[in-house]
Amino acid sequence: MTGVAIDLSGRRALVTGAGTDGIGRAIALMLARAGARVAVHHLNETDAAVALAAETGGVALQADLSDTAVAAGLPQRAATALGGLDILVGNAGALLRKPLAETTDADFARIHAVDLAANFALAREAAGLMQGAGRIVFTSSVNQWMPNPGLVAYGSAKAGLGGLTRQLALELAAGGIMVNAVAPGTIETDLNRAARADPAWHAKKLTLIPAGRTGTPQDAAGAILFLCSDLAGYITGTTITVDGGLSLMGLAA
């Protein structure tokens, strides 16, 4: 039995949050290696994004997604640069760890703007640009289901993203656009680089993960690549958990 290769030749993709060393960068490279041309979005990592765009045959696009109007304009910018748009990966995110009593209205609004409202605006505009079959995939988190102390803003935004995924899937399926999400657990990215430098943090995490290791950006990106491909042409409105079994253990720490 031979393997099934994922071929995205001719597809045009926009990946948000790809300027740092994390899931966005990994999925941009995977999509490009499968044949897609990729527009690389970043906040302020210009050099890294330009270098990555050179590898993906696409373009680097800067945008502050905390501004919903700016987010709404990004799919058209990508489509103009690439000659169209077939895939949107809404990966950019903001993380805040604060107790409820210390979380301000401004904190809550900022996290929801980046993690939820921006993805709504991106998807709405991207869907209007996709001709025929399209793919929209969001990077969520196991925290969309699993409450975690100090993540009232982040966890509620990711829970909203899960609901947005299902609602968009329902509305867009008839037009051939499949909408799904991936919920990573503990992934080795720039967001948790400082925490990972603490041996005690790492040891504690491993006690919570049945697979016995923390995840890599490639672990999450592989699931996203699948959802962007023709292999997932009959899958919509679902969230794939990529956490090594962490969510089987109950409360994440």
How would you portray this structure in words?
With 253 residues, this protein is of the alpha/beta class. The chain contains eight helices and seven strands; from the N terminus they run βαβαβαβαβαβαααβ. 43% of the residues lie in helices and 14% in strands. It has a seven-stranded parallel beta sheet with strand order 3-2-1-4-5-6-7, sandwiched between helices. Helix 4 (105-129) runs parallel beside helix 5. It is globular and about 50 Å long. The chain starts with 11 loop residues before the first strand and ends in an 11-residue tail after the last strand. 48% of the residues are buried.
Secondary structure topology:
Blueprint: E1 12-15, H1 23-33, E2 37-42, H2 46-56, E3 59-62, H3 68-82, E4 87-90, H4 105-129, E5 134-139, H5 152-172, E6 177-184, H6 193-196, H7 199-208, H8 217-228, E7 239-242
Parallel strand pairs: 1-2, 1-4, 2-3, 4-5, 5-6, 6-7
Helix pairs in contact: 1-8, 3-4, 4-5
Short summary of the structure?
This protein has 253 residues and is α/β, with parallel strands linked by helices. It is built from eight helices and seven strands.
Order of helices and strands: EHEHEHEHEHEHHHE
Number of separate strands:
7
Separation of the first and last Cα atoms: 42 Å
- The top level CATH class name: Alpha Beta
CATH topology: Rossmann fold
Radius of gyration: 17 Å
Instruction: Name the helicity range.
Output: 40-55%
Count helical runs. 8
CATH-defined superfamily: NAD(P)-binding Rossmann-like Domain
In total, the number of domains comes to 1
- What would you say the CATH architecture is? 3-Layer(aba) Sandwich
